[in-house]
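Entry 14. Ran structure prediction on the chain below.
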Amino acid sequence: MVVAPRVLRQTFPGDHPVQWRTASPLWAVLQPRTDNPVFAQPAMLRFTTDTFMEDFLTVATETPTRLWEWQVQKETWRKPAPIPSLRLAPGQTPSTPPTQMLDDPALQNEPLKLYQPAHQRYYLVAANLVCRIPGLPDKTLKTTQRETVSFVVRRLLTVNKVLQEHAFVNGFWQPVEPALLQSLKAGEQTFPMFPVTYTQRADGYARRMFSGLIPVSNREAFLNAGLQSKATGDSVVETEGDRRDRLLTLLQVDVVAPWRNINQSRIQEDRTLVESWSKLEAGRRNELLASVHLAQDKLQSVSWYVLLDLAYYLRDYLPAVWNRLEISPDTPVPTGTPGKALLDTLQSTTFKLETSENFNTFMVLQNKFSGVSDPTGRTSLAKALKDVYAARVHLENATAPYSYQSPAGWPASQFLLCGNGVNSLVNGGDLDLLVFVQRIRDALTALPPDANQRLPLVPTAPTLIKSQNEANYDNDLFLIRCVYERPNCPPSVHPTVVSEPTQRFQMASYFDPDAPARPIRIPMPIDTSPAGLRKFAKNTMFVMSDSLACQVEKARDLTFGDLVLSVLPWPFHKDFSASAGGCPSGTLSFGKICTFSIPIITICALILLIIIVSLLDLIFKWVPFLIFCLPLPGLKAKK
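Output, structure tokens:
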């Protein structure tokens, strides 16, 4: 008859103090138990395979006395900790437990690091919940009374030059008072633990320990979480200034940044024009004019789309300003009108396109980007916004790029944001001090959006600065405490039982230079001859719209020579065809589904990687550290 092992649990009458102790299979290693502080600390176990949970259960249930071999130790990929064998060979005896776990002497002064699952490292915390009576029997959980066990991760941050524990509450770190370290803060995040029952070989009793997976993969969330001096409610009241900051950030992302990039593109085009003019003979300057027109069309096209985003912005968040622009963009604004400074700026900022085709005059070519200074017939920024908004349907649905030779459907006003006088609105180092941003800020202050209006979720500058200051990557020490909760009992009678802390540790980043490297093997195609490559299935499909399919077809028409000529200086320079950027509007076209051969794509990716690495070696000097190859005799494409 098979007799089930007896479970050593609380069977004595009355209530007894409950406490956390390290995992019971390790008790035999800890001598003496009475004054050894590790006996009161939850244990941390390290596993090195993706089957870590099965491995842990196998060791805990079959050979629990060997669990000490999986205790966490300091290690690096150059000095890895020993990896114990899951099962002993026939006739092999278990290793003798040491009296004290010793780290590699070279790592004694280094902090303990827990590595990521991507490094093939998994860590468990393990402890026993026992009654403080002779024999330390396991405490039975009364699940019907909602009793639970879990663990918390706490961070050590410097406060007044002293390391202080902080609890993770609602996504923030809150300080824990020194007198309340062994208590649970309200709302503190807990992580689950699960029971594991095993049989003690010495007396035949079954014991139960609790374990949980340490969330090392949460490192970035932990380190980037902000600080809170005290608990706050879940609801945050956003002030008018906060909403204004959010809208200003949206303006900088959608309008100001692309506008400034257009200005940078104009500077590059000017530089290219100056170099080309000095090198190109007079008889070929008509070719230079065609190249200038292509660049001008590109600048005009992106200028219209930035203007359209600005029009949408004014329509949605400054409707009073937009309504005046849409009705009468160039009518003088009465004194005292809210947003007058912004309206005046939009009306006074003007541009006039260079229409001359005299390619033998350098100034004419340069004015194609900057505009002319003629005071008559100029278009205001306010008028350009109205015209762009009126043509929004065409802009949103256009499939062919803009060309000055076929302007049908495009906005009536040609307005380059990189033109002289226009670009000055966003020129400067500090984005908050730009003329245009200041005008928008003043208008938002005078005409704040409705408090009930939903605003986009964008990170504001104050929030980013605060988050960066609070992240503090220098303070990256953590510890773990196990928790036993009895929510149905009054805290004065049966308070929450929180364990002593584990040893302190750091959580390694994904690119930690000490991290073990998970072995990754990418097999390449063996036979790369046409005879071999034609045999692979084309099982990777790309679904393309009609617009993308047409652009891909145009790209397939380009040759390597076209690419080289497009970047060479004059007189060797040759632009791409004007129709290379898209498909003609109104033509019948279809989407496509194309299948590709993954082996060929993999080979191309490897070759491109080598080319890019070689080119960027001029900056990073990294080629000596990139690759190491070993010969493989017998691996041949043709046998």
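The radius of gyration is 35 Å. Will compare against last week's run tomorrow.
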